[in-house]
Amino acid sequence: MQVQIFLRGAEILQISSRFTIAVHILECIRYFEGEASITSEFLSGSIGVNAVIIRRIISQLKSAGLVKVGRGRIGVLSARNLDDVTLYDVYSAVEAVSSGGLFHFHPNPNPKCPVGKNIHALLDDTLRKIQRSFEDRMRSVTLKDLQSVTVDITE
Amino acid sequence: MQVQIFLRGAEILQISSRFTIAVHILECIRYFEGEASITSEFLSGSIGVNAVIIRRIISQLKSAGLVKVGRGRIGVLSARNLDDVTLYDVYSAVEAVSSGGLFHFHPNPNPKCPVGKNIHALLDDTLRKIQRSFEDRMRSVTLKDLQSVTVDITE
DNA sequence: GATAATGTAACACAAAATATTACAGGAGGA
DNA sequence: TCCTCCTGTAATATTTTGTGTTACATTATC
After folding, report:
1. Which long-range contacts (CB under 8 A, 24 or more apart) does A117-120 make?
2. Which nucleotides of C are covered by protein (CB under 7 A)?
3. Where are the alpha helices (DSSP H) in A12-105?
4. CA of B102 to nearest chain A CA: how many angstroms apart?
5. How high is the pLDDT of residue B69?
6. How far is the C-alpha of A48 from the C-alpha of A55, rounded, in Å?
7. pLDDT beyond 70 at B7
8. B1 CA to D7 C1', in Å?
9. Residues β-bridged to residue A98
10. What dihedral do alpha carbons A2, A8, A11, A17 form, nearest 10°?
11. What CA–CA distance (Å, rounded) separates A139 from A149?
C-alpha cells in the first residue's frame, strides 16, 4: 500500500503564503502607523520575506484599496479603516482565485463517455457553492476580530 | 497599476485536480460497475488523464477504503456503497492537507518584532476554524446528492 | 540636488503537479 | 500451463507556480 512512498514530498495544496504575509503587513500598519515609516525593508524584517515580494503584495493591497503608498521616505499607510477589513478582502486582493476557482478541474473529460459528458454538470454547481461558503466565512472575520482571541466563528 | 503585468501567469491556488479526477473515477464505478471491466486504461479514456496518474489516485482511494482493485482483468470495484461517500471522503483520500492545512503560513516571522511575535497567535485559531468549516461543507455532500441537480447546500 | 524608497522587469531557483516510459508480478482465461 | 492483461510503482521529464534576487528608472521628501 504505502501511498506515501510514491507521493513525492508533501503534496500540500494551500492558499499561498501571500495571504498571511498580507495580513502581517496590515497588522504592522495597524501597529506602527504614525510611529514609524513602514517601508518594504522594514516589513521584510518583521515578516522574514524578501522586500521585493513585500512590494508586490503591497501593490496588490493598494489595487484593492486597502493601503496607499508614498514615494520617497513615506512608506505604506492605511487607505481606509483597517479594523473593518475582512480576511476575504485580503484574500481576494492577493489571490487570483476569481479566474479559476478554488477547485482545479481536469481539463479533458471525454464527451463521448456518458460519465465524462456529465461530470461538469454533476460537480460545477456544488463546488461553486462550497467555494462561496468558504469565502463567506472569510468575509465574516475582520482584522479587528482577530484581536479578540476567541473569535466567534461557529465551528 | 497593472498588477497583472508582473504576476506571471495565473497565480491560481487550487485544490489539485486529483480531487475531481477521483470523483470522476467513483462516478464511473457507479455507472459502469457490473457492465464493464473498469481498468485504469478505460478510466484514462473517460477522464482524459494518463493511466498511471489514474492508478495512483486509485491507490489512494483504495487506502481510504472506497474502492478495491482486482489484479488481472478485473479492474476497479466499489468497496462500499458509493452513494454515501462524501466529497470530504474523496478530498481527504487524495489531498495530504492534514500535514499543513489549507493555508500556507510564511515560515519566518521575526520574534523580535511585536507584530511578528504575535502573528501566529492572531491567526492560527481563526484559520483553523475556516478550514474546518470548509471541510464540514464537503462532508455534507454525498455522491448521491450530486445526482440531484439542485443540491441543498445553504448558500 | 542628494537621498531613500517605490515599481517593476528580468532572471534564477525551488517545489509541486502531472506526464511518460518501463517493467516486475499476479490473475484469469485459453 | 502458458499467455495475456492489468496493477503497482520506480525513475525521470516537463510544466506550472511560488519565491528570491539583482537591477534600475522614477519620484518624493529632506
Report:
1. A119/B20, A119/B23, A119/B24, A119/B27
2. 3-11, 15-22, 25-29
3. 18-32, 40-47, 51-63, 87-94
4. 5
5. 93
6. 13
7. no
8. 53
9. none
10. 150
11. 18
The set of cell numbers assigned to A98 is 476569481
Of A3-7, B114-118, B142-146, the one with minimum mean pLDDT is A3-7
Residue B12: left if φ>0, alpha if ψ -120 to 50, beta else—which one? beta
* Terminal Cα distance for chain A, rounded: 34
Q: Is the CB of B139 under 7 A from strand D?
A: no
Q: Return the pLDDT at A155.
A: 46
> B40-51, pLDDT tens digit by residue?
999 999 999 999
Name the residue closest to D10, CA to C1'.
A6
| Strand duo A75-78 + A67-70: pairing | antiparallel
Give which of B32, B105, B20 is closest to A109, Cα–Cα.
Answer: B20
Label residue B101 by pLDDT band (50, 70, 90): confident
Task: Output the pLDDT for position B116.
Answer: 95
Q: How many CB atoms lie within 10 A of CB B52?
A: 10
How many Cβ atoms sit within 10 Å of the Cβ of residue B43? 28
DSSP E strand boundaries for chain A: 67-70, 75-78
In sequence order, what DSSP letters do the residues of B41-101 get, joined into one string?
Answer: HHHHHHHTS-HHHHHHHHHHHHHTTSEEEETTTTEEEESS-GGG-BHHHHHHHH--GGGT-
Q: What percent of chain B has pLDDT over 70?
A: 83
